[in-house]
Amino acid sequence: MGEADLTGGPAFTQKLSLALALLLLMAYGLGMLYSLKTHRELFAAAERGEAGEVLLPIGIAVVTLILVTVVVALVSEVFVESVQQAALAFGMTPAFVGFIVVALVGGAAEMGSALSAARKNRLDMSVGIALGSASQIALFVAPFLVLMSYALGPHPMDLQFWPGAVVMMLIATMAAALVTSSGRSTWFVGVFVLMVYLVFAMTPYLLPPRAQ
Question: What is the secondary structure of 37-95 as a DSSP string?
């Protein structure tokens, strides 16, 4: 088994990444079908607007979402160019920029919505926004980029992460499960989550992946 791994490593990784990308996209599509169609009543509590809130018609909401998406894409292009220069100036590693800086800026809208829901004591909505954003990255954005790399990129992407990233994702998943399992939260739980995140931030900043 070791010889087979050594002789067919890169080809096997590409094929496995492509197959996993297709499966993850299928899981994401089925999840959307589950939450929006077949079991929509389970998410009805999160859909009800509070008193005094103005709900936009579906047509205006879709157009607004498309326009905001285009603007965010343009701003992201400018941001990527700027952050590369800032990373060199401040001594940031590529791993730190990718895992922390880009993630923070890219998720600013979701974090703002989650903080707003938390201030209104809507823990279910706040956690749902945070976990929903992470699930969207894992089940849709990452596999979609893998598929698009075959058509647009100079080389196909794969889903092979350095071991440290895999360990951090596993710990983050376990921490999220522990925090959300009780359905309640306190300030110390928030401190615990922030400490875990700071550990993750220090790791790529001080110890970048060996490949880099």
Answer: IITGGGGHHHHSPPTTPPPPPHHHHHHHHHHHHHHHHHHHHHHHHHHHHHHHHHT--HH
Residue 74: count other Cβ atoms within 10 Å of its Cβ: 10
Q: How many Å apart are CA 145 and CA 129, to the nearest integer?
A: 22
157 half-sphere exposure, CB direction, 13 A CA radius: 16
**Mean pLDDT taken over the chain:** 78
What pTM value is reported for the model? Answer: 0.70
pLDDT digits (tens, 9 = 90+) for 84-115: 677 777 778 777 887 888 777 777 777 878 88
Q: Which long-range contacts (CB under 8 A, 24 or more apart) does 77-80 make?
A: 79/105
Tokens of residue 195, six digits: 């400490």
* Domain ranges, ordered by start, for the chain: 20-40+54-206
Give tens-digit pLDDT for 134-153.
Answer: 888 888 888 998 999 988 87
Q: Would the pLDDT of 8 be above 60?
A: no
Give the integer Cα–Cα distance in Å for 35 and 31.
6
Instruction: Extract the tokens encoding 89.
Output: 């100036």
Q: Rounded CA gap, 6 and 71, in Å?
A: 45
Torsion sign over Cα 15, 96, 129, 182: positive
